[in-house]
Amino acid sequence: MTSPDTATAPPDITEGLLRHLVRERFPHLAELPIRLGARGWDYQVWRLGGELALRVPWATRRADEPLRDELAWVPALAGRLPLPVPRPQAIGEPSARFPHAWMLTTWVPGEPADHAPATDGRATSTALAAFLLALHRPAPAGA
């Protein structure tokens, strides 16, 4: 049985597809190298050059609204967080080649926490706690 979130999975996400999408939406970035950064539960993240990334939904059809919410709210939140987070730059709209919105963000260097074991448990837990405390605030009006 197929869940509503995956009923219309996007096409295979390849470097060629992403190059086409970038060329259509951001032609000035079309010649930058593209390579896979990470596959998450709902999104894939692809590096675009050295400073940018493409966040592309691959396992959900409800990606458009969350990406638009991120574009609206993450830039305001990012400045008050003690750790760097990808900052949304722009949305790529659904097209004939790809049926969902996708996002251009900044690239944050480093290893995903689930790929790099914590060697200093106290420092790691302190950093995580500080991040969660900074994030856990009442939502701004209109959110």
Mean pLDDT: 87
Task: State the helicity in percent bands.
Answer: 25-40%
Number of domains: 1
Number of DSSP strand runs: 5
The CATH topology is given as Phosphorylase Kinase, domain 1
- For CATH, the homologous superfamily is named as Phosphorylase Kinase, domain 1
Poorly predicted parts: 1-7
Compact overview of the structure:
29% of the residues lie in helices and 20% in strands. It is of the alpha+beta class.
List the helices and strands and how they pair.
Layout: H1 15-25, E1 34-39, E2 43-48, E3 52-57, H2 64-78, E4 88-92, E5 102-106, H3 121-135
Antiparallel strand pairs: 1-2, 2-3, 3-5, 4-5
Give a quick set of tags describing it.
143 residues; 3 helices; Phosphorylase Kinase, domain 1; globular; five-stranded antiparallel beta sheet; disordered N terminus; alpha+beta; 5 strands
Give a verbal description of the structure.
- Mean pLDDT is 87; it is low at 1-7.
- The protein has helices spanning 15-25, 64-78, 121-135, and strands spanning 34-39, 43-48, 52-57, 88-92, 102-106.
- It contains three helices and five strands, in the order H-E-E-E-H-E-E-H.
- The protein has one domain (15-110, 118-135): 2-Layer Sandwich (Phosphorylase Kinase, domain 1).
